[in-house]
Amino acid sequence: MNVDELLSFLRIVQNQKLTINVKTHDDRDRIICESIEKPEQAQELIDKFELGKEFRQKGQLSLDVCIFFINRELASDIQLCNERLNNNQLLILGFRNMLLSSNFDIVKPSYARHIYQNMTRPLCDYYINTSHNTYLFYGQLSGESNPEAYNQALLAGCRAVELDCYDGSDGKPIVTHGYTFVKPCSFESIIRYMKPNLFKTSPYPVILNLENHCSLEQQKEMGRILEDILGG
């Protein structure tokens, strides 16, 4: 990475000149981070971090130093510099990092990483991660019903998915968005497709919300499909 490349990179990650004034509750000075805007500033960074004389003379950072620099200097919670120690300012990048740091979490870290609630209550006692019109892969009025949409919802953590079921012309139920131009897919293909992913991301029950528009005969076919594929 040469001076120009480093400068361009720093301009992206540091959002250039944007600053935000901050003041601590006890009026202490807040250390701020200053944007790197000039080639000579980028060269100073190279001279500071690059140990290889050949790379320094060429105004370049080696791959190892690039990785070290990014991990240490740019991925910290709040970047600190001494140039404006007394100005009580924080760059927009540092402000963002501050808000995203663990100090600003709205829940306890242990609560965020582990399930701490009582999970033995009836389903009606919980908020459930639910997908509406799950089968829609594109728009509400056109496109197609697609089994892959169910896999995406399940792998994203949904525990309730929706199937709008209608009579198929061949005697087998289909899933589609009624009274629209959405192309249908077979009910059976969706059930078969989603089965391997039902419990990949969560051990908790999956609710199949069947919006039933089928005749009695095709309702029986739906029951047979569910029993054959998922068990009864």
UniProtKB/TrEMBL annotation:
Which EC class is this protein assigned? Answer: hydrolase
Q: Which UniProt keywords apply?
A: Hydrolase, Lipid degradation, Lipid metabolism
E.C. designation(s): 3.1.4.11
What is the catalytic activity of this protein?
Answer: a 1,2-diacyl-sn-glycero-3-phospho-(1D-myo-inositol-4,5-bisphosphate) + H2O = 1D-myo-inositol 1,4,5-trisphosphate + a 1,2-diacyl-sn-glycerol + H(+)
Q: Name one GO molecular function term.
A: phosphatidylinositol-4,5-bisphosphate phospholipase C activity
Instruction: Output the InterPro entries linked to this UniProt entry.
Output: PI-PLC_fam, PLC-like_Pdiesterase_TIM-brl, PLipase_C_PInositol-sp_X_dom
List this protein's GO terms for biological process.
Answer: intracellular signal transduction; lipid catabolic process
Q: Does the keyword Lipid metabolism apply?
A: yes
Pfam families the UniProt entry points to: PI-PLC-X (PF00388)
Which CDD domains does the entry link to? PI-PLCc_eukaryota
Taking every annotated instance into account, which residue ranges of this chain make up the domain Phosphatidylinositol-specific phospholipase C X? 117-231
Q: What Gene3D superfamilies does UniProt report for this protein, alphabetically?
A: Phosphatidylinositol (PI) phosphodiesterase (3.20.20.190)
Name the PANTHER family on file: PHOSPHOINOSITIDE-SPECIFIC PHOSPHOLIPASE C FAMILY PROTEIN
Q: What is this protein called?
A: Phosphoinositide phospholipase C
Q: Which species is this UniProt entry from?
A: Rotaria magnacalcarata
